[in-house]
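Exercise 4. Each item below gives a protein and its sequence. For each, produce the structure-token representation.

Item: Cyclic nucleotide-binding domain-containing protein (Candidatus Neomicrothrix parvicella RN1).
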Amino acid sequence: MDAYLERLGALSMFAECSTKELRDVARIVDELNVEEGRVLMSQGDAGQEAFVIEEGTADVVRNGELLATVGPGQYVGELALIDAGPRSATVTATSPMRLLVIGTREFSTLLDEVPGLARRVLVSTTRRLRAANEGAHQPIH
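Answer:
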């Protein structure tokens, strides 16, 4: 379990969390294996979960344009954890993948139980959005 908590703590989203908070997060995470070509999320669909990539790679495409290729240690769909809004991009596995999945309902319940976690997640998500905006031609909405 300690190695698992270390992997969660290495993610920027959870980097500031205490060991107890990481244990709380670990309770709501499921593991999922997907094959190459599987669509993890489609642009415009309602967000129900976020994915943390343990192994493999995926392409992130918005309006037909490749934005990024993501891999181990990165995550996609984290905005759904906050607002369950529409997906801003389509993400498709480009290799077999092992993922950690965090559902919005479970995450929301966890934030109610561990209020300090909400601030940490919002700060790290805001930093990631700022970095993405600085590299983008137009603001992310």
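Check: The two ends are 37 Å apart (CA to CA).
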